[in-house]
Amino acid sequence: MDLLRDLLREYYTSAKLYLPKDFMLREFAFQTYEKGVYVRHLSFQNEALLRNYLVSKTPRQAYYSSAIYRDPAAERMEEKGWLGSELMFDIDADHIPGCDVEKVEVGGKSIEFISNECIELAKEHELRLIDILKHDFGFTNDEIMIYFSGNRGFHTVVRPKDDDWLKLSSYQRRELVDYIKGVGIDPERLSPLPKPIRRGRVKARIVLDSIDGGWAGRLVREGLLNDDFTHEDVIEGVRKLSVEIDEQVTQDVSRLIRIPGSINGKSGLPAILLGSESELLSFKYSTEIAPWKGHVLVKPRKGVEPLGKVSFLGREFTLNRSGLSKVPTYLGIFLALNGLYEIVKIL
Question: Is 228 a catalytic residue?
Answer without folding.
Answer: no
